[in-house]
């Protein structure tokens, strides 16, 4: 199945099974704004808990913060967002659609990668076990030709970004015949910069109102509270401050479902270090964060690092952790060495001294910062994309039937177990409800008695429930139940008294943390 079709099915699945809804749908919706349904909010909260606990509980020198969305407008002047928080956008005159010029060029380079990968894939099938991929990539004329074209584009692209040369970005798009996906034409406007911040007014009268911004990132709330946290917590460098919160960007080109939204949520940790030690910590946090992603078991080959072609104004090193979505490798987390830019800027604009006295060095300095930043919504989408499966399984009378299953890691699955009485009589519902009442203090449980047991299994598969517990007439006699495992569909008979221990072991974040 084409990856584009997989993505369409995934979006439809999110709506049908209560994961994600279009915001204000009964009023025809609001573009690039989404609501999380009953299962989506559980999955999202589990992702956030896994991140928060791995940061704050597992690290003695990382603490939490919850800063306000509204901040003094000078904060955004100091941070550079007022003057430099822009996207290079280009319009197609025929379709009237607007695109990010840098994304169009990145997609163009990805097409050359796809062509090279296709040549490699064909050769691997032809040569079998004797295939040497590295040698093939170095010697095959078609691969080398595509590589040369990609490198030419990449070189021009990087220079244009560094020089802020908008005309050159358009020239690349024109030179390589990039067409609008809607109109199929190359009738492009010039590239222009658009600031992405939402603004509003705070105050009781129009004359006395203060222009404020909805924060475009959560990091600045950490930086302006650096001294508050450091002094009240008696924190010693190196230490980090973690935060989960909403951010807002007026994305002109919002697309790909919840991948790029106007209202989104971030999980960020700013790690403060001594000057000169930032690149060492940058490499360390790269390793830590990649292990965190891979620990969820969605496939190590699905993740990769992608170093930035153009560094932000505040950074001296930056990389992204990308996940292979149905529409290609895309960023889910950014790791940046932000130098001392943020604290120095706030020190200058506020007139307040923002330094740390290092008792070991016997000197004061403005700390440097290493940032790790995840988009919660992108993480959510990567988990669903990696978990979504359509399988052919053996049904009744040996006939093949299909099932849609979300093979979510049990630790973040929205519902941990469903308890299902085989029939709605003979005391089976009462026993099933008793099991739910015992286990609901430990796990998110569901009780379901409607339809055949097969249909109930399919419903639970579709929302990613890792365990189904079936109560039958034997359960009344010997206090045992059947536990069905989602991924394998295998069933085993266990004592009711063993259920808590069996499920706890599989869904415990503690067991996963031990592997980090």
Automatic annotation (TrEMBL):
Residues that bind ATP = 249-251, 259-264, 331-332, 375-378
Where does the record say this protein resides? Cytoplasm
The protein's matches in InterPro entries, at most eight in alphabetical order, are given as: aa-tRNA-synt_IIb (IPR002314), aa-tRNA-synth_II (IPR006195), aa-tRNA-synth_II/BPL/LPL (IPR045864), Anticodon-bd (IPR004154), Anticodon-bd_dom_sf (IPR036621), Gly-tRNA_synthase/POLG2 (IPR027031), Gly_tRNA_ligase_bac (IPR022961), GlyRS-like_core (IPR033731)
Q: Name one GO molecular function term.
A: ATP binding
Q: Which residues bind substrate?
A: 100, 217, 264-268, 371-375
Domain Aminoacyl-transfer RNA synthetases class-II family profile as annotated: residue spans: 197-421
Described function: Catalyzes the attachment of glycine to tRNA(Gly).
Name the record gives this protein: Glycine--tRNA ligase
Name the species this protein comes from. Natronoflexus pectinivorans
The gene for this chain is glyQS
